Each structure stands twice: as C-alpha cells, then as structure tokens.
C-alpha cells in the first residue's frame, strides 16, 4: 500500500487549483492505488510562521495531524497556483512550519494558472525552497494552463485524452521515486 498525500495550496475563495487536487485524487485511485488524502491548506489555518511545530509548546491538534500525515506519507503531490511568479503564502507557511517531515520525501509539483503559461515560474521558486529543506523533488512536473478550460469544479478533466497521458507520466515518476526511496530505506536498515 502506497500512501500519497495531495496538498491543495490555495486558500482563496473561488480558487481553481483545487480542481487539479481533486483530479489527482480521482486519477490515482483509478490507477489502482490507495485513494490519496487531500490536505487542503484552507482547513488548517496555519499562522504566520513564528516557530516550527516541533518547538511549539501548545500547537493546534490539526497542525499536528497535518504533520503526521506528511511524515507518514510515502510521497506528496503539491498543487499550487502561481501568484505573481511565486506560490501562495499559505504554502510557504506550511512548508516552514515543519522540517524533518519533508526530509527526503518524494514530492511531485503541479502548477496551475488561469492563463497560458501554466505556472512555469512558480515551480522554480517552490523547488528551490523544497531543496533547501531536504525534500526530494521528482523530475516530472505537471503544468496546467487555462485551468477553467481544462478541469471542472469537481476535478473532472475536460480533455482526458491529453490530461490523462500527462498525469500518467507524472504519477509514474512519483511512484518510481517512492519505490526507490523505500528500497533505499530498506538497505539502510540492513
């Protein structure tokens, strides 16, 4: 059983990137894997970063639950919109809030935009942040241009011939990295 977590990064009203998180949840389940859990940052209300969770004296139980889900996950997909070339503060807070939970965690990045550029700039800044904390970002990326024309509100693809092919390669790369990490962890134990 492979435990994949999907982080839906936007907390805005009317957000559209959440459609892609829903799509991946359905897509991964359709491929015969365990249904991924969506960690919707809108549900966690992380405070502005002042201190890491591990150093807090009285953290909210939901923040500890979030960290536990990340720590226990075999792999993580981050779905993020691009805001002015970067990712939302809600995601930066969640990343900074933890540290050891991200270490050597296979992570796949999906970028979403309303326009034609498909979040190409956000991946670079997000990847750099994840590298700095020791996460393992997988080589495959998933870029979504014109999200309104690509996914409906329930996460259903409006052009499955294209999206399923791209999503298949993206998920396969994540799963390969997850399996490689599991083998490395096993060899370290022996």
From TrEMBL:
GO terms for molecular function: FMN binding; oxidoreductase activity. Residues 3-145 form the NADPH-dependent FMN reductase-like domain. GO terms for cellular component: cytosol. InterPro entries: Flavoprotein-like_sf, FMN_Rdtase-like_dom, NAD(P)H-dep_reductase. Signal peptide: none annotated. PANTHER family: CHROMATE REDUCTASE (PTHR30543), NAD(P)H-DEPENDENT FMN REDUCTASE LOT6 (PTHR30543:SF21). This is NAD(P)H-dependent oxidoreductase. The lineage of its organism: Bacteria, Pseudomonadati, Bacteroidota, Saprospiria, Saprospirales.
